[in-house]
Amino acid sequence: AGQAAIGIVKLSGPSAVEIVSRIYKPTNKKSLHKQASFSISHGFVIDKKRNVIDEVLVSIMRGPKSYTAEDVVEINCHGGAIALQSVLGLILENGARLADPGEFTKRAYLNGRIDLAQAEAVADIVNAKTKLALKTAQGQLSGKLSDSVKDIRRNLIEVLTQLQASIDFSDEDIQTEGYALLTQKIDKAIKQCNKLLETFKDGQLLKQGIKTAIVGGPNVGKSSLLNALLNRERAIVTKAAGTTRDLIEEVINVKGLPLLLQDTAGIRKAFNEAEKKGIKLSQKALSDADLVLMVFDISSGLGSIENQLVMDIKDKKTIAVLNKCDLKAMIKVADIKKIGIDNIVKVSALTVEGIEDLKQKITDICFEHHVEPKEVIVGNLRQAKAIEEGVKRMGKALSLLKEKESEEIVALEIEGASESLARIIGEISNEDILNSIFSTFCIGK
């Protein structure tokens, strides 16, 4: 990281105020212990010999109304590396230690200020690649997913209560009316979980983006298409075939979807070693791609190269981009459909005609459904696996009910489903899972 105007040293814990007070000389001479919460004071950081290390502003946020729900002190220093390192060194000498990655958020979770799903949303906010991804993560931080999970678990607790009542009065079987109510509640919980699972794929796309390979024969306008999508000149464009040798990679925001674009070398018989390597890179990009933009020169006919590429992409989400639509067309939409591609957009990379239509087509075929910022989204594989396990246990409970198995066995499955869902929000967790989650955070969060 480079220099900045301001650098912040942050402490959290029961001794935070005491440690800072040992090295801080406030201008107003008021003890830091008496400084009000959510206030800032001016002063100087001094060493043991009373030498001034830096002029600073010190903020105090007293627990439990702080990020970690503990006492938090922030020292706003000048942003130079030497000043910051000197202040940090004094802090460590006086009893503090360096925070682990994600430890501030982990403490917020352990102290009950946020749950585990909300803690994961903090990392999603930091890593968001688009405004839609950011707004969706902010929704999860506000507790939208957590509220949905809690609602499902309340439903399951009602089922358990009814089952327990039947167990307590074991001489009476579940009445027909009670049986119908139980199956109805379990079925409702399964549907709620499945609705959440439907959002998982879109959640992953928002977080990770979609690998997109721009492929086609030589000189069909792949690099021009990349430039048109970026709205700037990123790739060299010439009339000579085989200009692109290396992969050109860029990330763009297409209606909220992060698109990891790869402009590849035109695939044909290579004329030299450099071009051969470029074509190998193209083939690997094609193999790894989630989405393929296959570019055709609409002013030329279809050839053997296009037919071979169609074989390579038959299992991929593909859009046929009929480029140079400002010229006389030698390829018809029907021709493209005959070779097995149904998603077709006409564009002119030169005049940018059709580029917005292409962006819309990309979102239409990549998103399972239209994602709204206010929507509940399952944000990661851990959460999805927990929901899937819950659905599996609830499905087994339904089968047991239909087979007239004992209430005790049915209750065990419902308890298991409830516990699976509890893991999403961290009501049930273990240290290994927590370490795995928070190790992905940056230090300071």
Structural overview:
About 5% of the residues have low confidence. The chain folds into three domains: about 90 residues, Probable tRNA modification gtpase trme, domain 1 (Gyrase A, domain 2); about 140 residues, tRNA modification GTPase MnmE domain 2 (Four Helix Bundle (Hemerythrin (Met), subunit A)); about 160 residues, P-loop containing nucleotide triphosphate hydrolases (Rossmann fold, 3-Layer(aba) Sandwich). The strands form two sheets. The protein has a six-stranded mixed β-sheet with strand order 7-8-6-9-10-11, sandwiched between helices. Strands 1-5-4-3-2 form a five-stranded antiparallel β-sheet. With about 450 residues, it is α/β, with parallel strands linked by helices. Helix 6 runs antiparallel to helix 7. The chain is built from 16 helices and eleven strands. Helix 11 links the parallel strand 9 and strand 10.
Give me a quick take on this structure.
With 445 residues, this protein is of the alpha/beta class. The chain is built from 16 helices and eleven strands. The two termini are 16 Å apart.
What is the element string, with H for helices and E for strands? EHEEEEHHHHHHHEHEEHEHEHEHHHH
Q: Taking strands numbered 1, 2, ... along the chain, how are they ordered across the largest sheet?
A: 7-8-6-9-10-11
Which CATH class of the largest domain applies here?
A: Alpha Beta
Distance between the termini: 16 Å
Helix content: 40-55%
- Beta strand %: 15-25%
The helix-and-strand class reads alpha/beta
Would you identify the CATH architecture of the largest domain? 3-Layer(aba) Sandwich
Please give the count of helices.
16
- CATH homologous superfamily heading of the largest domain: P-loop containing nucleotide triphosphate hydrolases
Q: What summary fits the major beta sheet?
A: 6 strands, mixed
Indicate the overall shape.
flat
Which fold does the CATH topology of the largest domain refer to? Rossmann fold
Number of domains: 3
Mean pLDDT: 87
| pLDDT < 50 runs, ≥5 residues | 235-245, 268-272
Radius of gyration: 30 Å
The number of strands is: 11
